[in-house]
Design a protein that fits this description.
Length: 414
């Protein structure tokens, strides 16, 4: 990324052309800022200028010196940010180069932090919060608020605004949690004082406990028994779900990026994306059947077991590049949404009145595993790769209404 000068393509009201500072990233995304000078078209040279952009102008020497000074400020931001190995965007460069001692607005601060985030999903989450905040302040005609202008009433208004959008209590909480984290970061960076922390006075919304959706053993059998054409997307979606279930509810990203090289003799071994831990499973007859299906539709040079993710993009999984990471995450997100679309159709075909998605495979495995293992929580914990048994207990508690219903029926029968 580099800052450069360019001339406007249109005349201003004085019949001259504005000089702009252009900041462009490696993907071609660019932003422009006025350099506060305007000249005739034949007085500006954008190439082979030797830092003498303006020529045949009565104040050419001063104008060029001023332009070099301001251009250096922008390029210094680029160099310093790159040296710190931080993410950088044209918006971030402009913000840093034009930053004054004035208190940044919530919008400005969010944009700065988003620009520094390397992980795509993190940027995506904060961007969604910022968009919700901007819609809220626009609808309420609150203006571009800074940190010290935020009070409890404004936060409560934002909370109510999110609920009116029919967002879940968990999503509302996440929005306010990210806003709160920006206050914490701003205090750490000495942008605001500890006394400006309005979240001391504001009560965060409670997250309502929800029952995790899962399939019963009977529903799972119904799901698996639906017949579809080999090689079709709906058949692939069905087999992906069953593979995830048979691999102890492995997360969808891990399933979609499994390679044939992960199949080693009688085991499947791979590194989990979320934790970086190695997962190893014996290939059971059920897993072998699914692998044989994917092998039957496998193209000659295919490396991935599930033929749905773009293999070139799948190879970006371990890339340190921010752009590669974003492209990879977007591809996983697109293909997960596609699979969920077909899972919904399979559920309808099987007359299962539940919203089936890829993550339900994990819930289903946990629910069936605890029953079939006679309540062996250590087995379920190890299978799900939870760090401790307490997490597994909480997880299972959100799944188990059936045993409570059965016991209540026994107790209350006269």
């Amino acid at each position: 990324m580099k800052a450069a000068l360019e001339l406007s393509s249109k005349k201003n009201s004085d019949g001259l052309y504005e000089i702009y500072i252009r900041i462009q990233d490696n993907l071609g995304k660019k932003k422009r800022v006025k350099a506060n000078y305007a000249v005739a078209k034949n007085q500006f040279k954008s190439k082979k200028h030797n830092m003498q952009w303006v020529r045949n102008h009565p104040n050419a020497k001063k104008v060029n010196a001023d332009l070099k000074l301001v251009l250096d400020e922008y390029n210094d931001v680029v160099l310093m940010t790159a040296a710190q190995k931080k993410s950088i965007t044209p918006e971030f460069v402009i913000y840093k180069a034009t930053k004054t001692n004035e208190l940044p607005t919530i919008k400005q601060y969010f944009e700065t932090k988003i620009a520094q985030m390397l992980e795509y999903n993190q940027r995506k989450g904060y961007t969604q919060v910022l968009n919700n905040w901007l819609k809220y302040t626009k609808e309420g005609k609150l203006g571009d608020l800074d940190f010290k202008q935020i009070d409890v009433q404004i936060l409560k208004g934002f909370e109510n605004f999110l609920y009116k959008k029919e967002l879940s209590s968990g999503t509302v909480y996440s929005n306010l949690k990210r806003l709160r984290s920006c206050f914490n970061m701003a205090i750490k960076e000495q942008i605001i004082e500890v006394g400006d922390y309005i979240f001391r006075a504001y009560t965060m919304p409670k997250v309502k406990a929800t029952q995790k959706e899962k399939l019963t053993l009977e529903e799972l059998k119904l799901f698996a028994s639906q017949e579809y054409t080999n090689g079709s997307l709906i058949k692939t979606a069905q087999q992906v779900f069953m593979l995830a279930f048979n691999l102890a509810g492995v997360r969808i990203e891990d399933v979609l990026t499994l390679k044939w090289e992960n199949v080693k003799k009688e085991r499947i071994e791979y590194v989990m994306v979320k934790t970086g831990a190695i997962n190893s499973f014996q290939i059971t007859p059920q897993i072998l059947s699914i692998l044989n299906y994917f092998k039957s539709i496998k193209s000659e040079k295919a490396k991935l077991i599930v033929p749905i993710v773009d293999e070139k993009i799948a190879l970006l999984k371990s890339s340190k590049s921010e752009v590669d990471n974003e492209n990879y995450k977007k591809e996983i997100g697109r293909k997960t949404a596609l699979i969920n679309k077909f899972l919904k159709k399979i559920g309808e075909d099987a007359v299962i009145d539940k919203k089936i998605s890829t993550h339900i495979a994990r819930h289903t495995f946990a629910s069936i595993a605890i029953k079939k293992s006679n309540g062996d929580i250590n087995f379920v914990q190890n299978a799900l790769k939870h760090s401790n048994a307490k997490i597994t207990q909480v997880y299972l508690a959100s799944l188990d209404n059936d045993s409570m219903d059965s016991k209540m029926n026994d107790v209350t029968s006269l």
